[in-house]
């Protein structure tokens, strides 16, 4: 009698698990998206007080916005966000200058089709202090994330 109950239990379990089979076409049922991507380029040498052009290339031709934020890596000086100008399809540029030597962070703020990104890249302006050299080689502390709504 116990073996009949065991067989019935196994059959019920196998039948229930068969209903959980993965549909290989399930991924095609969902919206396929490609996240927004950006590259940021600027000269290898940046001098304080001199104009420097930051070039931003996006994977989208019509983003909602493209801004560039410049600040010292230690957070003591910020130039705020500045709107980059469109110079071509998916290409943007911003020419500005920084007034102090040091280790800086350039952070792109861009959005397109509901995808918002904040890639960042470090750069050096003029001469670094000993503390900035240490931060550069040991890995600078992350800068506070933007917590307020963007637009």
Task: Give an account of the 3D structure.
This protein is an alpha+beta fold. Helix content is 17%, strand content 36%. The chain has helices spanning 2-18, 130-138; strands at 38-41, 52-58, 65-72, 78-83, 85-88, 91-96, 102-112, 115-117, 120-125. The strands form two sheets. Strands 3, 4, 7, 8 and 9 form a five-stranded antiparallel sheet that branches. A four-stranded antiparallel sheet has the order 1-2-6-5, with no helix packed on it. A hairpin with a 2-residue loop joins strand 7 (102-112) and strand 8.
Give me a quick take on this structure.
With 151 residues, the chain is of the alpha+beta class. Helix content is 17%, strand content 36%.
Q: Gyration radius, to the nearest Å?
A: 26 Å
Number of strands: 9
Instruction: Summarize the main sheet.
Output: 5 strands, antiparallel
What is the terminal separation in angstroms? 70 Å
Strand content: 35-45%
Provide keyphrases for this structure.
151 residues, alpha+beta, 9 strands, elongated
In terms of topology, how is this protein built?
Layout: H1 2-18, E1 38-41, E2 52-58, E3 65-72, E4 78-83, E5 85-88, E6 91-96, E7 102-112, E8 115-117, E9 120-125, H2 130-138
Antiparallel strand pairs: 1-2, 2-6, 3-4, 3-7, 5-6, 7-8, 7-9
């Amino acid at each position: 009698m116990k073996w009949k109950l065991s067989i019935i239990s196994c059959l019920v379990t196998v039948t229930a698990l068969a209903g959980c089979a993965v549909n290989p076409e399930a991924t095609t049922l969902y919206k396929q998206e490609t996240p927004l991507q950006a590259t940021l380029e600027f000269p290898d040498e940046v001098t304080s007080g001199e104009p420097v052009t930051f070039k931003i290339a996006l994977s989208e031709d019509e983003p909602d916005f493209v801004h560039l934020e410049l600040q010292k890596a230690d957070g003591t000086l910020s130039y705020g966000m500045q709107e980059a100008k469109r110079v071509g399809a998916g290409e943007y540029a911003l020419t500005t200058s920084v007034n102090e030597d040091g280790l800086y962070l350039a952070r792109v703020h861009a959005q397109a089709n509901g995808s918002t990104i904040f890639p960042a890249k470090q750069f050096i302006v003029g001469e670094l202090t000993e503390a900035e050299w240490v931060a550069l080689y040991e890995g600078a502390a992350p800068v506070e994330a933007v917590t307020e709504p963007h637009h």
